[in-house]
Amino acid sequence: MLVLARLIKTLNAVQFRLEHLEEENGISRRRVRELEYELEECKREVVRERTRWQEETAELSGVIQAATLGRTLGKKSSKGKGKAKESVSECITLDIHTIDFQ
After folding, report:
1. pLDDT digits (tens, 9 = 90+) for 17-75
2. Residue 89 and residue 65: Cα distance in Å, rounded?
3. For labelling, which of 52, 64, 80, 85 has a CA lying 20 to 30 Å from the CA of 71?
4. What number of other Cβ atoms are within 10 A of residue 90's Cβ?
5. CB contact set of 54 (below 8 Å; sequence gap of 6+)
6. Distances in whole angstroms, Cα of residue 9 to Cα of each of 6, 19, 23
7. What gap in Å lies between CA 78 and CA 96, rounded to an integer?
8. Which of 54, 66, 74, 60 is nearest to 91 (CA)?
9. 3-state secondary structure the chain
């Protein structure tokens, strides 16, 4: 009889602990879903920001190239071949610095 009482008490303790663990598991699963949702939101934000940055970079690159081309054309018409080669070299250097190395 004593053994049976101890066995029932142990089973009740195990059942209580199991219920507690199941509750913790449910909370943890819900938190994982929340974190996965936040991660997806962050990924979308990264895509938006990367696209915005690439558009701004492309726009700025176009402005720099247009300004450089304007200066190069202006220098070519008023200076000798040596200066024109130097201007083209400057254009190439600017183009290399505007390349996106992702």
Report:
1. 999 999 999 999 999 999 999 999 999 999 999 999 999 998 888 888 888 877 877 76
2. 13
3. 52
4. 14
5. 100
6. 5, 15, 21
7. 26
8. 66
9. CHHHHHHHHHHHHHHHHHHHHHHHHHHHHHHHHHHHHHHHHHHHHHHHHHHHHHHHHHHHHHHHHHHHHHHHHHHHHHCCHHHHHHHHHHHHHHHHHHCCCC
Residue 91 has pLDDT above 90, yes or no: no
What is the rounded CA–CA span in Å between residue 51 and residue 53?
Answer: 5
Q: Would you mind telling me the total number of residues written for the chain in this entry? A: 102
- Token pair of 10 as six digits: 């142990």
Residue linked to tokens 């600017």: 94
